[in-house]
Every structure is written in C-alpha cells, then in structure tokens.
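Risk register update: the risk of archive-format incompatibility is retired. Evidence:
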Amino acid sequence: MKQYSRIFRYLGAYKGKIVLYFLFTLLSILFSIISIGMLMPFLQLIFTGEAGIKSSNNIIIQSVNDFLNNSLDKRGKVPTLGFICILMMVFIVLKNIFLYLSYYILNPLKNKVVNQLREELYDKTLRLPIGFFTEKRKGDLMSRMANDVGEVEGSVVGTLEGWIRDPLTIIVTLTVLFLISVKLTLFILILIPVLGLVIGRVTKSLKRHSEQVARKNGETFSIIDETLGGLRVIKAFNIEKLLRNRFFKTSEELLEAKNQIAYKRDLASPLSEVLGVLLFTLVLYYGGRLVLRGELLEASAFLGFLGIFYNIINPAKSLSTSFSNMRKGGAAIARIEEILTTPVTVDDNPNGKQLTAFTDKIEFRNVTFAYADAVILDNINLTVKKGQTIALVGSSGAGKSTLADLVPRFHDVTGGEVLIDGINIKDYSLHSVRSLMSIVTQEPILFNDTIGNNIALGSHHSTDEQITNAAKIANAHEFIIKKENGYDTNIGDRGTKLSGGERQRLTIARAVLKNPPILILDEATSSLDTESERLVQDAINNMMQNRTSIVIAHRLSTIRHADEIIVLQKGKIVERGNHEELLAQNGFYKKLVEMQEVR
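Archived output:
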C-alpha cells in the first residue's frame, strides 16, 4: 500500500468529508440490512400467523418480537402485515437517501484527488531542470500526464468507494449475522478466504502487464509526435513505410499487453461471482440441513439470514474487482511517482536575495559543468561587464549553449560559481534572476494564441501601445497589420501560420517588451533565409542597444562588432578577443571565418 501513500495524503486534507461519507455509508448499510431483516417477521407471520421468532435468544430480535407481537395483539394479522411492509419500505427509502448522500460527498472528493494529482504532476514538470528532459522522450512524458493519470482515475481513485463501502458492508453484515447465528457465520468465515486467495492469484500479474501498456503508450506518443513534427522529412526521404512499420509494431505490442490485462481483469469479476454463488450454495445446504434437524433457526429466520448474507456477495465481488483495479493502477502510480519524486536540482531559493537591477557584471569563476560523467565545461573564467556584447563561437558540442544556460540557471554549475554583481547566482531568488533576462532561441517558441498575446507573454500588464512599439522595434509591425485580424490573429500550433522570419521577429518583440537589462541570443538567425536574416538581425541590433548581451553565433558575420568573442572547444576557452584581434592570432577563429568566407 506504500505506493498509494500520495493518494492517501491527498485524502487526508478532506478528513471531515471522509467522516461524513463513512457515516452516511454506515447508515445506508444498516438500513439495508434492517430492511432485509424485516423479511423474518414477515415470513414468520405468513407461515405461522405469529410475528416473533421464538427460537432466537438475541436481545435485539427479542425486542422486535415483543414490539410486533404487541402490534399483533392490538391490531390483528393483516394490519401488522401492512405495518411490516411499510417499515420495510421506509427503511429502503432511508437506505437510498443515505446512499445518495454518500455519493454526493464522495464523487467531488474523487475528482479533487485526481485534479490535485494532475496539477502536481504538471507543476513538477514545470520545475524540473532542462537537463531532465534530454533523457526523457516527450511522448513518454505526455503519456504519463494523460494516460497514466487517467489510469489512476479509473483504476485507483475510481474504486475509492470500494475501499470503504465494501469492507464496511462485509463487516457490518457479518456482525449482524453473528447476532443471528454464531455457528452458521463461523462456517461462512472459514469459506470466504478461499475466494480472496483465488482472486489474488488471478490478478497477480496485472501490474506487470500494466507497466508494459504504459511503456508502449509512451512509445506510441513519441512516434506520433516525431511523425507530426517531421512530415516533410518523412515524405522527402520516402520513409513512410519505415515509420508505418515502427508504429504498427509498437501498436501491436500495445494491443497484446492490453489484451492480457483484459483477460485477467475480466476473469476476476465472473470468477468472484461464481465463487460467491458457490459459497452461498454451500451455506444454503449447510444451514438448511441444520434447520431440518432442528439444530439452528426456524425456517423464516434462516431465510432472513440468507437474505442478509446475500448482502455480502456483491460487496465481496466488487472488492475483488477493486483489488484487481488497484493492482492494474499500481503501475501507473509508479510511473507518476517517478516524475514527482525526481529531485529538482535547480530550485528557487525561498530565502534568496531579490535581484532588482543589474548594475555591474556577470562573472564565471572557475566554472565546471559535467553531465552524466561527461565534462561539458572545464574551468571557465569569463567576465561580462554591463553594456557589453559577448559572443560565444565554436564547433557544435563545444559547450556554447550550456555556458549561456548557466546565466538564467537552466543548469547549476557542478564546480566553481556564476556571480551577478559579485553575488553567487544561487543566493538570489530564481524568479528575480530570470525577470532581468530575455532569451531568443534558434527555434522560435510560440503558443497557439493570438499575435498580441504571444508578444505580451510574461508581460501581463502591457498596453496595446506598448505591444505595438515592441513589434515595431522587432521589425514585425508591418507584417502583423497585413494579417486579417492584425494583432488578434491566431498563429496556430507553434506559430505554423507564420513564416520562420515572422515567428522569430515575434519572439524578439516579446523580448523587447519585457525590456530586460540582459539578453541571451542563441543562434537566433541561423535557420533563416537571407532576407529574413537581415530583418531579424536589424531587429536584434535594435533590441541590443544599451543592453548586456550574450550571443551564441553560428554565422560569424552577425558578431563582428561584439566587444569580445569567446572561442570554445571541448568545453574550454581556446581563444578570446574582438574580431580583428582573433584574426591576427591566426588560430581556430580565423579558420571558422575562412570557412564561412567572412572578411
């Protein structure tokens, strides 16, 4: 049950409602048993003309006997019979009223638990460091947030009712049966564990098959995501058959795992019903034999006993189904827990200082960064003074993006320290550090919303005038006003309704609107055509005025006027200086320039 501790912790916040649910459930069960128990005096009156069950020495039944015999003496048989029927009806109505009230309490509670789990999972996903997502497939993460949460909702939380109602029904019913006949109830208790043992063996492998389903679901999501994102390449290289075969193979494996779950899960319910009926038949035979021998109850009391005992069959069946569902949902909970328990290596400092303004410099002091035993940055020492533009160049994998990512703390250093205005960046509030920065990436990150809302992202209180001015600085205003709805035009999923240059200019407008003192530009023009590159580069130049900029450059022509160019190779700084100084060194930078024919 340890794996369900999170669910129980969520439920702990609603103790009052759980107590109410327990109370309403208990009352519903009691009135259900009493309504069935009224069959005993009813049958006794029909068979013998008497309302009491004389062979019972139970104080509760004796009290009912006295009450009904008194009614029989005063009113006669027919009115007493009608009175018994009215009592049965009243008890059934009361049972269903309290049953409805229990559902009224429980169903919103179940929905809140699932909603809390989903929100906590999403919130944790937002807080996890960037490095976490390099190891995980996006499709697998989507599967955990969608399919696994849905599985928990259906298999675990969905059977929450059975965790309380069914055991409570069985316990209360057995207690009443003990009051009627100890000997016959003990016989039942000897047989019931057989039912649980058989069902347990049937459902034992459900968790293993559920893990296979969850894993295959993740693979399916990944293939779909890769297919939708790479349709041009797939069609251009005629690899539709390859992708189709890969998807079909994963889909067939998913189908097989689902079928195995269905076979075991669906077997649990009919098997429990068959065993329940078998148990009922054995009790019917054993108890009937005792009645015929005169060793136990009268016939009417025995029939009432059977009616109450039958009240156990459905809860026992439901409990076995709930148990199998919990086994099945255990795999989903385990996959969700893997995300929720992942340590947040880059977390906010709740007691950190507020970085309200950037006044002096950013300093990398003996910085080392290693990831999975691979050294990405090795003993980096670099100072970026306020107002400077620093460019990072080098081969792919040299550590340029990682070095820039240390400034907004997308990663934390594994050695050395990064300082802003002389204070270790970890000593600041994470939110305050990032609030002074804007980032423009190589791949424009846009959302399925309007142009205006995408520009205003992160600047919630911006006016229309401010948004327009930011778009003008980013050379985006002219193409925006030509759109059918102007700034209210929806740009589609990831901005697919716009060209590459238009998308990039929107991200620059977003950065301009935020008006940060520090800019990080990660190869913002490398994927654009010549005309778009010129427009975007002009926008970048406008944005960089009077700001401190760290530029990751692929096209060296864009950083010729940087205050300092840092050349990285295999995580180390191998050259540094301005454009002319580096050319004079006749080193690696000059080779890069010559390869791009930049003079």
